[in-house]
Amino acid sequence: MKVMPSRSNEWVRPLTSQKPASAIIEIDRVSQVFQTSARKDHLALSDISLTIDEGAFVSILGPSGCGKSTLLYIVGGFVSPTSGAAKIKGQAITGPGPDRGPVFQEFALFPWKTVLGNVMYGPRQQAVRAVEAEAQSRALIEMVGLKGYENFYPKELSGGMKQRVALARTLAYHPEVLLMDEPFGALDAHTRTRLQNDLLNIWERDRKTVLFVTHAVDEAVFLSDKVVMMSNSPGRIRQVIDIDLPRPRRRNELLLDPRYQKYVVDIERMFDESDEAGPAS
Amino acid sequence: MISPAALTRRAAPVLACIGLLAVWQVASLVLKNDSFPTAIEAIRAIPDILGDKESLINILASLRRMAIGFGVAVIVSIPLGLLMGRSRAVAAFFNPLLMVIYPVPKAALMPIIMLWLGVGDITKTLVIFLGVSLPVIYHSFEGAQAVEEKMLWSGAAMGLSPLQRLLRIVLPAALPEILTGCRTGLVLALITMITSEMIARQSGAGNILFNALDMGQYDTVFAMIIIVGAMGICLDAIFERVRARLVRWSEPQFDMPLSFS
User: Fold this and answer.
1) Which pLDDT does position A273 carry in this prediction?
2) Which of A78, A169, B20, B71 is positioned for an S-S bond with A73, CB 3.0–4.6 A?
3) Same domain, A93 and A224
4) Predicted confidence (pLDDT) at residue A6 exceeds the cutoff of 70
5) Which chain A residues have a beta carbon less than 8 Å from that of B153?
6) Domain for residue B110, yes or no?
7) Is the ipTM of this structure higher than 0.90?
8) DSSP code at position A235
9) Confidence at residue B252, expressed as pLDDT on a 0 to 100 scale
10) Within its chain, how far is the Cα of A152 from the centroid?
11) Domain tally for chain A?
């Protein structure tokens, strides 16, 4: 777990030299309308404004269908907003780019490539020499706990292992922001817990900016510095909650921490209240 | 060591062939019809055909046309099918055309093509090309359409251009489906090859067969049927080997019948 790629300085920022937080992603009055049929438009996102600081772990939390994934896709450049704009480091986002690395719930691995081939794909695309790309990729595969599986094909791996490969594949091309779209949503509870722990371990080492979409309250609180609560149809930001819990976080300590429990209970209550109030106007 | 079950499985196709020949032999002996030689007579005629230089030239000419027709069809159809699968505009343009061509027996177009291009190689190769194209286009189209959007997004985030995504993500992801189409295409190539030689007689395996039919050499007719059938089985077995190698990474989607490999 101590192996670092040779270009480690690019994605490992020492904790001691942390700069004051500055905005890396700015979302400015973004709305998204989907045409569901010829007559009816569905307002998926309504007037979303959000700033994400560099190095922050931010979760977007909300019920299914609240547009939280769409918001992530807009930041990724995969979807263009109907109105408003998103920026990364002051530059308008016009399309996907290697500065923003997605990790999808569906894994989206390349099934014709081995584990090593998948992880090496990004570096090779960016013209990193084969030898160097392979060394880096092997180190990353070891870091996500898959040493020995380098030559396996995705079809031979379990869901949890596939998601570890997907994470390594994205980390391999050094994105500045990780965009995680319900990455553990398709996994069983046990695997999900292990991957949360491992993700946090990896993240606490390099403190890359993470935008993490989830509908699980405990997951959002456990991982994040900031939880963005969204409400349903149209997708709006309800509230942004700072999670003021010490790091590094360890699951067995945190679950007993009354502050953690209060965050979870408070957020759950807020969602319940909005449910009782009936569908939002 | 080979287990009894595996042995049975391997022996089964051989037994089926022997069984078929036995039924043929008995039926022929019972019916005593001049136009229905026994299996042994037909098999005896095979070395005569394969030993004859003229026949071999004919058969090789057939195979050459088939290879060219099949090859060109695959080279043209895969990119077209992939583009149709990824672009609604391309699909909207070509789909109606293909729908019109699809149900038309390609051999039915031959008289017109013969009128334009004569009875030579070009006409026959073109008919084979038409026969192979449609299943390959269709399967490439289906395969390209089924490619996971998120896989393409992952590639885009790594910096792949649209063309790179088509060649390096859509093509390999759709390969299992494409090869299924190619396999159907290969059998159709053999069928259209014989049919085209039946209509425009000049050379080829089909020419030998129908000339023999005209001259009442029924043992040669049946020997040719066996030869063409064997060619089909061999080509399919070779193709299936190659296919299985190329897509061994993919989940087995369905069993492929008609294979001895």
Assistant:
1) 80
2) A78
3) yes
4) no
5) 76, 78, 96, 102, 104, 108
6) yes
7) no
8) B
9) 63
10) 25
11) 2
